[in-house]
Specification:
Blueprint lengths: L2 H10 L1 H21 L5 H30 L2 H7 L2 H21 L6 H24 L1 H7 L7 H23 L8
Helix pairs in contact: 2-3, 2-5, 3-4, 3-5, 6-8
Length: 177
């Protein structure tokens, strides 16, 4: 199965897929209400958030591919509106449901997601800086900035990336005496 066939199948069964996506946060709420627990609830909410993020990633991938190959006009003409609205709704509603049930810091996937977002942001800034170093030198006269300051800026960005990594992975386990 290719991504193209997956997206075609999603479009073919768009009404059913949209219905499932719109119901998932409320099904999660129901499961957490029926089976409340200190161990189960964070994992149910974590699984739901992981699915919501997966749908957002697929949604962004579809929009990036479709607009790159056909343009926004074609997407507007042919896209299923329910399928375009469902992933943002799913993510926002899942975050709201999760926040109502537990503090977001108590949900394992949310901590991981927060760390991944920080690392992705640092990667994007570093990639932009390193890809356009020559442009920065010409247009912004970065050559006037001492090299040590530039290294400190890069070190600061890497530190923020490490903080994001620690958020994603968590603290190392402590040894018991």
């Amino acid at each position: 199965m290719t991504l193209q066939s997956l997206y075609e199948d999603l479009n073919t069964y768009g009404v059913w897929v949209s219905a499932v996506i719109f119901l998932m946060p409320w099904l999660t709420w129901l499961v957490c209400t029926i089976i409340p627990g200190k161990w189960e609830e964070p994992w149910v909410l974590s699984f739901n958030l992981a699915l919501a993020v997966a749908t957002i990633v697929m949604w962004a991938g579809y929009l990036a591919y479709a607009t790159n190959t056909a343009g926004w006009d074609k997407v507007i003409e042919e896209a299923n509106v329910l399928l375009l609205l469902a992933p943002p709704y799913y993510l926002l509603t899942s975050l709201w449901v999760s926040r109502q049930r537990l503090p977001l810091g108590a949900i394992p996937f949310f901590r991981t997601l927060r760390g991944i977002m920080i690392m992705a942001g640092v990667y994007m800034v570093l990639a932009a800086i390193l890809a356009r170093v020559q442009l920065y030198i010409v247009f912004f006269n970065i050559s006037q900035i001492p090299f040590s300051v530039l290294l400190w800026i890069l070190a600061g960005l890497l530190l923020v990336g490490y903080i994001g990594y620690r958020q994603a992975v968590g603290d190392p386990p402590q040894r018991r005496p």
